[in-house]
User: What shape does this take?
Amino acid sequence: MSTSQEIKEIVKEKYGAIAGQSKQRNASSCCGSTCGCGDAEYTVMAEDYNKLPGYVPEADLGLGCGLPTEFAQIRPGNVVVDLGSGAGNDCFVARSITGGKGRVIGIDMTQAMIDRAQSNAEKLGFTNVEFRLGDIENIPLEDGTADVVVSNCVMNLVPDKSRAFSETYRILKPGGHFSISDIVLKGELPAAIRKSAEMYAGCISGAEQMEEYLKTISRAGFINVAVQRRRETPIPEDILKGVVTAEELRVFKARKVGIFSITVYADKPKQ
Assistant: This one.
């Protein structure tokens, strides 16, 4: 892969293009004209939000890999921060729980996503949901802002995950907690996949080993770290063929690498 800044620019470009598309187009057209076919990995991990209160189809671009808001133990009146908020999907689900007395803040590094999310919030008439442009490695919020932090398949896109979890810790109130869905590995990816910018933007090549991911969370100061949900996520062969040779694909299959969607919970100590 390239430098951290180059990785961020790749992510901005890809998700900025996706922001202008529908969930259906993302799922069926290889991300439209900005990406070559083989980029369908953006949606193969998506979960079904239809059963969740507050779900807004127009805000669902199919980019997640879990349902963190379902497991986040959000309460009425909470301040909830969504890291990598996209078009606002998880923010609107969270808002249905916090109610009018709560507050929901979405953070995203892509201006096109912020614009789309704000438009969705305005259409819904929500005055306690806001969206801010920002980097998860330097979150534009004061210390101790949030009761709950959620994030859906976004930490994987951050080059410095240690910094991102330290920032998550900083913005949580003492005694607050997070519920984050992300992609992790069991076993080593082939070098071609790890080096692929396209696979990184699809949350795959940037995935850490599960054990290391959980250790990163603990090192940031969190306690009671627990995997709330775990789901194996096989990557379709036609996607892999776009970045690896036939021999590399054979080796990949032989290694039986496990790619998992997990939802992780952790508390910030009350201090």
Q: What stands out?
A: Residues 4-18 form the longest helix (15 residues).
